[in-house]
UniProtKB/TrEMBL annotation, chains A, B:
GO biological process: phenylacetate catabolic process
Domain AMP-dependent ligase C-terminal: 334-429
GO molecular function: nucleotide binding; phenylacetate-CoA ligase activity
Name under which the protein is recorded: Phenylacetate-coenzyme A ligase
Keyword terms: Ligase, Nucleotide-binding, Phosphopantetheine, Phosphoprotein
Keyword Ligase: yes
Length: 432, 432
């Protein structure tokens, strides 16, 4: 049931003791990085000031901008010749960010991913196909090393070429697949086109989904389509990649490995901790990293800590599914809206497919939102029923997001498909 | 000087003793594979019949067709649950082929690649950028694991996006690059377009080139362009991937690791061994593999064993650079021609660039060869000089390949470029 029983079943006091010990060690180690040395000096702070977990609050946040400003290697806490891997973001906006790893970091990363995969029931004997991009994208090598560490037969399919993915699944008897949610849905569509019934013609039974915010309804729908259990995965390259937090078989929140990370949830405006259980920005401190530890890193991902105990016996805190990134937030007529809120409503309608597109436009100096959504395959083209369906969706969306969008039902297959992350929002508003 | 001193400096008798021991063990182990068990039975052969290295000749060859016929897992010598990785060919013609690896296989593969990279002078502290495709293509994960094993900082750039590759090279201070030869030449062109002087603006000093047949002239040209030493690498996914044979710093043939492989060179028609030093088809027997050993595998690569001792102190045999694949051979007017013969001639002309295209066509039921080749950037457009150059190239080509091609000099940048393996031959002949 547990790959690392001792670490996975630590009690809360044990977790906190281990965290304090690792935090103190990490902070001392960070003084090898010119960046943290200077930042501590500027704040009249020394590693000895960290005497309890609460003292973490004394340390300033680290931001993505700090990573950019120190590009490429200014945040390293070890000499470069001790590092064996770097991952870099694409840097589409501004300088890319770089994360460095020592051999020990790669080992611990593989351990974390292996622990996650074991937690959802995967074992040696399973055949694990990874449809992530490889190379710089951490979903590729991250799952590769973790799945090998666990001893599964890995199929490094990499991204794209859906028909080839399906050939692998059927020829190799793939039992577990890692894919982003929109791509899993796309695979199902291609299966239908090819006459493949996933339950009859494949051995798939476990799906790992992550890297793209999605709703519980989206997950259940994918599970129904493919006849699998689908588990949420959370990771980010700044924290290494996949393996940061993962659902257990309860499918009720993502356990974040507190022997690797200290979790905080803050209000992104005031930067103060939010009250227990409220949604805010996830802030993580790495306490098990060598090449490039990050202290109080603002992830820009929005989530909350779920209250209560998990029946699985792990006391590592559970994150709610990501609500999106603080950057994804749409501000329309002064209201904060997350695309995931809209998705959650749409997917409650059996008449609708899983593809939708939110367009924001300025019409007569008025900002408006249009929600286009595909009908499911089997639905009617009776005009009256479509009209009443449109009205009902509009009403429910307004209840949720407080503004009234224009809702357009479009035939299945109309919206553009991508093999990468789905594009859900198009912002065409004029800025004045 | 040696990463695995003991294994790299074995004397010939020691190599042969180790080979026999490993061969016997491998053959016994192969009896776990239904394929080999049956093949041995059909040939009234048992593992006990292998008493000396010469007895290897008793074992039938294994071919690519055998891999296809047993697709996907019929050649495994261990239960599937002991394997942790598979690589599959694209299967553009017929069934794909699949190679399986245990954890020990991956370890030994990484060791072999690390040994190669160390042999050419790379060390921890070097920054190694890999421009191979990742995923199923073994050049990606193969070099990744080997370079990490050696302790270099690895940059998993993956294939394509030349400007991004160049940004990595300059931002990260890449000292060593793995690229196929035509792509290395392409990178240099883009550097020129961007005003980058590789000697002045980069720290590149080692290039690993492989996966594409190329001539000594091509290598020297790439070395001159980029200001690097370029080392030949030979590998194939059936043998694991990169790391099978590699040049040492003498740049005089590729040492094949005889603690991993037993080498034979055969006449592809008679299947008999060729006399010492003559060109023929490379046949390899894996003697250090667990999941899927291959006995006397016909690689279809053409090469020869170089005579004499290497000053580097390694007694592992040296392969001559690959002459192409038996499949690449062009038969024109009854003459066997390898594209590499043509390249070797072309690159002796300073007036020519490194891109060329061989087209085979039927004109009035006569098969003809056209060789288009790009001029180098600085060359004249004086018609008289171009004519005499064309004549001289035609004459030298005829001397080498025994048929007279039509030679066309074209301006630089005219021939189609690819970011994958260069396409050198277009066969448009009618088949009757």
């Amino acid at each position: 049931m547990y790959l690392h029983k001792e670490l996975e079943t630590l009690t809360r006091p044990e977790i906190e003791r281990l965290q304090l010990e690792r935090l103190q060690k990490t902070v001392r180690h960070c003084m090898n990085s010119p960046f943290y040395k200077q930042r501590f000096a500027e704040n009249h702070l020394s590693p000895e000031d960290i005497r309890s977990l609460d003292d973490l609050q004394k340390i300033p946040f680290t931001t993505k901008q700090d990573l950019r400003d120190t590009y490429p290697f200014g945040l390293a806490s070890v000499p470069l010749e001790k590092t064996v891997r770097l991952h870099s973001s694409s840097g589409t906006t501004g300088n890319p960010t770089v994360i460095l790893h020592t051999q020990k970091d790669l080992d611990e990363w593989a351990n974390a991913v292996a622990r996650c995969l074991y937690m959802v029931g995967l074992r040696p004997g399973d055949i694990f196909q990874n449809s992530s991009g490889y190379g710089m994208f951490t979903g590729g090598l991250g799952f590769q090393y973790g799945a090998e560490r666990l001893g599964m037969l890995t199929v490094p399919a990499a991204a794209g070429n859906t028909k080839r993915q399906l050939k692998f699944i059927s020829d190799f008897g793939t039992t577990a697949l890692h894919a982003i949610p929109s791509y899993a849905a796309r695979m199902y569509e291609v299966m239908q086109e090819m006459g493949i019934d996933p339950r009859r013609d494949t051995k798939l039974r476990t799906l790992i989904i992550g890297a793209e915010p999605h709703s519980e309804e989206q997950r259940r729908r994918i599970e129904d389509m493919l006849g699998v259990k689908a588990y949420n995965s959370f990771g980010m390259s700044e924290m290494c990649g996949p393996g940061v937090a993962f659902e257990c078989q309860e499918q009720n929140g993502l356990h974040i490995w507190e022997d690797y990370y200290i979790v905080e949830i803050i209000n992104p405006d005031t930067l103060e901790p939010v009250p227990e259980g409220e949604v805010g920005e996830l802030v993580l401190t790495t306490i098990n990293r060598e090449a490039m530890p990050l202290l109080r890193y603002r992830t820009r991902d929005l989530t909350r800590i779920l209250p209560g105990e998990c029946p699985c016996g792990r006391h590592h805190k559970r994150l709610d599914r990501m609500k999106g990134r603080s950057d994804d937030m749409i501000i329309l007529k002064g209201v904060n809206i997350f695309p995931i809120q809209i998705e959650t409503i749409l997917l409650q309608f059996k008449e609708l497919g899983s593809d939708y597109l939110i367009t924001l436009e300025t019409a007569e100096s008025n900002d408006e939102m249009t929600v286009e959504v595909e009908l499911s395959q089997l639905f009617t083209d009776d005009y009256g029923r479509l009209q009443s369906l449109t009205r009902e969706i509009t009403r429910q969306l307004k209840d949720e997001i407080l503004v009234t969008p224009r809702v357009k039902l479009v035939p299945k297959g109309t919206l553009p498909k991508s093999e990468g992350k789905a594009v859900r929002v198009k912002d065409l508003r004029k800025t004045f």
